[in-house]
Amino acid sequence: MARSKTSCEAFLQTPLLIIGFVILILSLAGFIGSCFHVACVFWLYLAVMFLLIAALMALTVFGFIVTNRGGGVQVPGRVYKEYHLENYSPWLTKRLVKHPRYWETIRTCILGSKACAKLAYWTPFDYLQKDLSPIQSGCCKPPTACSYAVDATTLAQDPDCYKWNNAPNILCYECDSCKAGVLETVRIDWRRLSILNIVMVILLIFIYSIACAAYQNTKRAQTDYPSKVRPRWDFRWWR
After folding, report:
1. DSSP single-letter state for residue 153
2. What's the half-sphere exposure (Cβ side, CA atoms, 13 Å) at 20?
3. Three-state DSSP class for residue 81
4. Scanning 87, 104, 218, 229, which has its CA 20 to 30 A from the CA of 168?
5. Does residue 114 sit in helix, strand or coil?
6. What is the sign, positive or negative, of the torsion defined by CA atoms of 126, 128, 131, 136?
7. What per-residue confidence (pLDDT) applies to 83?
8. In sequence order, which ranges of the chain are alpha helices (DSSP H)?
9. Which residues of the chain register pLDDT less than 70?
10. Across the strands, what pairs with 73?
11. What percent of the chain has pLDDT over 70?
12. Where does the source fall among the domains of life (predicted)?
């Protein structure tokens, strides 16, 4: 997701790398505690692993809550959908697109991805037959309901209609529909990440259960066999 050319979600890269690094360090600690029967290191491993599992569960629940709202609105006679900023979580909206510094970074990323480049060669027939990604739908064209006829200048229209410009570096990048398209892309990827977190939590709970049994074996090895530090099951197998 961080290297995607259209989603511009590099902000997700840092927490994923941190989680991966923490799991790596914990795994090394558990390996040392298990192989060398160091009970204090093993206990630290179990304690931090418990906190990590709890944090991942909380992150997963929070992710589902934040991404519960959203989704596109089907445009009559078109394949693609359009997106509205008010349909998304206020927290997600404020965090990504309402903060000028974050939005400027995302806008620059969308410009660099050339997501709108191929739409410049589309005909009106293409817009009737082809689908658009959320970013293309919101950032590369004005809302479908906009009218630019001479007699329509006095009609009340969506504010995004007046933000649209044909210039390739402007288009509808400052439209609320563009920001909603970015939020929809983030929502879809975050939901996928939450599902991955569920799988990871189940796997970590399974590993944690095995580690608890190994911790008990390590304690027995230190108390039952002080001269030959082996877990009870390993000592019997070795004999």
Report:
1. T
2. 6
3. strand
4. 87
5. coil
6. positive
7. 94
8. 13-35, 39-66, 90-96, 100-113, 124-129, 134-139, 159-163, 176-224, 232-238
9. 1-12, 150-154, 218, 220-239
10. 82
11. 83
12. Eukaryota
Structure tokens at 70: 């959203």
pLDDT of residue 73: 92
Q: And the tokens for 84?
A: 């509205």
Nearest to residue 30, comparing CAs of 12, 47, 16?
47
Amino acid 35 reads C
The kind and range of the H/E element at 73 are strand 73-74
User: Please, are residues 191 and 183 in contact by the beta-carbon 8 Å criterion?
Assistant: no
Strand-strand pairing, 81-82 and 73-74: antiparallel
Token pair listed for 53: 């599992």
| Residues pairing with 74 in the sheet | 81
DSSP letter at 170?
Answer: T
One-letter amino acid for residue 213 of the chain? A
- Reported as type and span, the H/E element at residue 82 is strand 81-82
In tens, the pLDDT along 38-64 reads: 778 878 888 888 998 998 899 899 989
